[in-house]
């Protein structure tokens, strides 16, 4: 069985009342002047966690980006692979959002390693009910399930095909390789059981490649 690879939160801060200039840059809606920001070692886990925050607190995601080449080439010890920023009406809501993010990162969402040194990995995570962030990214209604599927370039493309054929799901967002971190994948939607079947097929197909990469 693949080993779980957990993301690590490297830095986190709350700005109780952000400066007007930054509020304009983040295009904050009226009344949303408190910010919570964090960096993590794994970007896709970070995106998943930000979405969870929008379900657990009165916050919205105002900024989320992956860093080029990934955590192994980070610009500093607290940079990692990803930065996310949430906004809320007050610091308490932002704090609740950050707590939801931390819980997701520590306990819910993870990559899976395909070798001993964890240099080969995949992400096959099912979100049973999307929040405002991932639903907007996927172009679906809030609360619908998705299969969030990510892997290295060739594996991701092969795995997506297997996932789409394994269940009654639709590809709603395509991440063509290379991404900023040199991966690829997509967001699929359908009924929750179908999303799970798609994620399982994605995982199985990539394990097959990892075991026999030159067999076609």
From TrEMBL:
Domain BMC circularly permuted residues, every copy: 1-107, 108-216
Q: Which organism is it from?
A: Paenibacillus qinlingensis
What's in the keyword line of the UniProt record? Bacterial microcompartment
Q: Does the keyword Transport apply?
A: no
Where is this chain's protein located in or outside the cell? Bacterial microcompartment
Q: Which InterPro entries match?
A: BMC_CP, BMC_dom, CcmK-like_sf, EutL, EutL_PduB
Protein known as: Ethanolamine utilization protein EutL
């Amino acid at each position: 069985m693949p080993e779980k690879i957990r993301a690590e939160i490297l830095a986190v801060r709350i700005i109780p009342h952000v400066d007007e200039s930054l509020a304009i840059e983040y295009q904050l809606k009226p009344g949303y002047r408190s910010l919570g920001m964090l960096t993590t070692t794994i970007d896709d886990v970070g995106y998943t966690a930000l979405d969870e925050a929008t379900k657990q607190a009165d916050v919205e995601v105002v900024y989320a980006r992956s860093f080029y080449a990934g955590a192994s080439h980070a610009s500093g010890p607290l940079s990692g692979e990803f930065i996310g920023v949430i906004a809320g009406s007050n610091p308490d809501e932002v704090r609740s959002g950050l707590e939801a993010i931390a819980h997701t990162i520590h306990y819910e969402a993870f990559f899976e390693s395909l070798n001993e040194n964890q240099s080969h990995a995949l992400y096959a995570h099912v979100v049973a009910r999307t929040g405002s962030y991932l639903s907007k990214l996927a172009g679906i209604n809030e609360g619908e399930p998705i299969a969030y599927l990510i892997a290295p370039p060739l594996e991701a493309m092969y795995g997506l095909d297997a996932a789409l054929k394994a269940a009654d799901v639709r590809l709603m967002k395509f991440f063509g390789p290379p991404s900023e971190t040199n991966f690829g994948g997509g967001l699929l939607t359908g009924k929750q059981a179908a999303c799970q079947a798609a994620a399982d097929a994605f995982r199985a197909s990539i394990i097959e490649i990892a075991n026999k990469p030159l067999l076609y």
